[in-house]
Design goal:
The chain contains seven helices and no strands. By secondary structure, the protein is mainly α. The chain has one domain. The chain is elongated, with a radius of gyration of 17 Å.
Length: 136
């Protein structure tokens, strides 16, 4: 029973992660980067885009692991490490909301909530010791 609940948590977090991936795919157009990033020199422009692309690849990886390898994430030590890493990405994003963007009552609660959900859903199975492969 615990295993099933944890698999649901991880898959739900995977679906939220897909939303983040799609959102990142559209950053170039949503934030008008063609115009708004013209102020950057070539190196900074390239770094900016490279990090966005890498983050999107990471979100796809997180989603694939969550949706297709949830049992291994729950039962193996390496899987639990991955769960904690995936959770930490969202926790760092929450911290950045306050430190880098400054809390905004319109956007920040939505972003924070969308980050808290996968952070919690990845952390619970990662910290659980009550799951074994036999409980599938």
């Amino acid at each position: 029973m615990v295993m099933k609940k944890h698999k649901i948590f991880i898959k739900a977090a995977g679906f939220v992660t897909i939303l983040f991936s799609v959102f990142h795919l559209f950053f170039y157009w949503m934030f008008n980067w063609q115009t708004s990033l013209k102020c950057l020199d070539l190196n900074n422009w390239a770094i900016f885009h490279t990090f966005n692309i890498i983050m999107d690849v990471m979100f796809v990886l997180f989603a694939v692991l969550s949706l297709f390898f949830s049992t291994k994430l729950i039962t193996e030590t390496t899987g639990k490490i991955w769960l904690l890493f995936m959770s930490s990405v969202y926790v760092v994003r929450i911290i950045c909301e306050f430190v880098l963007w400054g809390f905004n009552w319109v956007q920040s609660p939505v972003i924070i909530l969308l980050c808290v959900i996968p952070a919690v859903l990845y952390t619970i199975p990662a910290l659980s010791n009550n799951v074994s492969p036999a409980n599938k």
